[in-house]
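seq:
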Amino acid sequence: MPRMARFTPLAALALLASACATSSGPFAAAPASTVSPAPAVKADIEPQLAAWKTVVYANRRPTADMVFYGLADWRDATEAARTAGAKEISLIVVFDGPALPMTLGDAAYDRVMGTKAGNPWKSLVADLQKSGAAVETCGTRMKELGVGNVDLLPGVKVDADGWTRVVELHGKGYAVFQN
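struct:
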């Protein structure tokens, strides 16, 4: 009999987040509203939170779908947490791997990505920061790409290692999502 893989809650969340982020199903390009006017919606369950601590591990190559269905949603997440009553709110986005160039200034982005138009994602990173999110990036991957602290967008902090930072935050009670 084949041995079944064991999923931890963290692995299940990562798998779910990955499936949602890469979906090509019926909602992959759905417009915001297809019914006009939209029918009324009354929630049966109102979340109540004392604290909301979340780390988003962004380590995929940025695409329009990943940004639209992933990172852009986190800009509004802190407000949803406030609405649910959370007094302690912490959102940390750790960029690593193919997503790391999203944290680079224009010249470094062009050098690393072989483009000439600058970083197309810099306003998203700034919006995340304005919403209260801490933006961090992986120092190990920075070394591999040949970029330094001076090449980062303003306010981006450097982790010694992105994945190790995510594991540390999980151990401190942060919910982990992968984008």
